[in-house]
UniProtKB/TrEMBL annotation:
Keywords assigned: Metal-binding, Zinc, Zinc-finger
Protein name: FYVE-type domain-containing protein
Acidic residues bias locations: 244-254
Matches recorded under Pfam families: FYVE (PF01363), SOS1_NGEF_PH (PF22697)
Gene Ontology BP terms: endosome organization; endosome to lysosome transport
Keyword set includes Zinc: yes
Disordered: annotated segments: 216-286
Length: 286
């Protein structure tokens, strides 16, 4: 289906529409061979709580943003290359239903669809795009993924020492390796986590020890450097410089008051009678 849509005018129009909805807050999305496969609203688990986000599935990237005005204006655009994505279905738990994880080396998070059918549709379409991409490129999916952060409100005490109560002064921090919510002293160390950042990142003491052990096992003893060369021992300003919005840049939405009624996601190319699964893309650009 994707091949037949590549050169279609409708596809070009849809992509131009997405671009204009993001305006100057987004990057240019029109590219040779790129197809908008589907779009819709999903609930993304952010640091504080679940929030509605507009998602656009292209055949090679997943784009999402905050909804400023429903169907008209989005901002805080994020672009995730699908080649790096791995999906993982989540079991329904209480209010969290129809969810799955979107995992990449640099960022992993949970999203939730309104119904189980929508979840199936989204997951199937995303998986299909990933599969096609990897088949074309011959690449392997990445094996390491960033931790999924435990939401703030799921931890009232530090998940490492199990003692520190979180307050305005005793802030929550997230271990970048395991995603736990931990207190400052329990996350005073940093470690270089390739794939997530060039700089050492905050990790909990347990992960720090494990990472150090793993590192010394993998490096021959004569080449070993003291851990300080790779891992800095203190977090600058750990006592409070880092605030709750330390990373998840899409976490804050200023005036997302839009109390929209839910629209079902749209997947283009569905319902057209020839669902071409094959990949003979002779007109594949480059
Ligand atoms: Zn602690
Ligand atoms: Zn950890």
């Amino acid at each position: 289906m994707v091949d037949r849509l590549v050169n279609s005018e409708a596809n070009a129009r849809r992509i131009a529409m997405v671009e204009s909805c993001f305006g100057s807050s987004g990057q240019s999305l029109a590219e040779q061979g790129r197809v908008l496969v589907g779009e819709g609203v999903l609930t993304k688990m952010c640091r504080k709580k679940p929030k509605a986000r507009q998602f656009f599935l292209f055949n090679d990237i997943l784009v999402y943003g905050n909804i400023v005005i429903n169907k008209k204006k989005y901002n805080k655009q994020h672009v995730i290359p699908l080649e790096e994505v791995k999906l993982e279905s989540l079991r329904d738990e209480g209010q969290y239903r129809n969810g799955w994880l979107i995992r990449t080396a640099s960022k992993s998070f949970a999203v939730y669809a309104a119904t189980s059918t929508e979840k199936e549709e989204w997951m199937a379409h995303i998986e299909k795009c990933i599969e096609d991409l990897l088949r074309k490129s011959g690449k392997q999916p990445p094996s390491e993924h960033a931790a999924v952060w435990v939401p703030d409100n799921e931890a009232t005490i530090c998940m490492h020492c199990k003692k520190t109560q979180f307050t305005v002064l005793n802030r929550r921090h997230h271990c970048r390796k395991c995603g736990s919510v931990v207190c400052g002293p329990c996350s005073s160390k940093k470690f270089l986590l390739r794939g997530q950042s060039e700089k050492p990142l905050r990790v909990c003491l347990q992960c720090y020890d494990e990472l150090n052990r793993a590192q010394s096992r993998s490096i021959p003893p004569n080449q070993q450097r003291p851990p300080a060369a790779k891992a800095t021992d203190t977090v600058a300003g750990a006592s409070g410089g880092e605030s709750s919005q330390d990373d998840d840049s899409d976490d804050e939405d200023e005036r997302n008051t839009a109390e929209e009624k839910h629209d079902e996601p749209k997947f283009y190319g569905d319902g057209e009678k020839t669902e071409e699964i094959n990949n003979h893309s002779s007109k594949d650009s480059k």
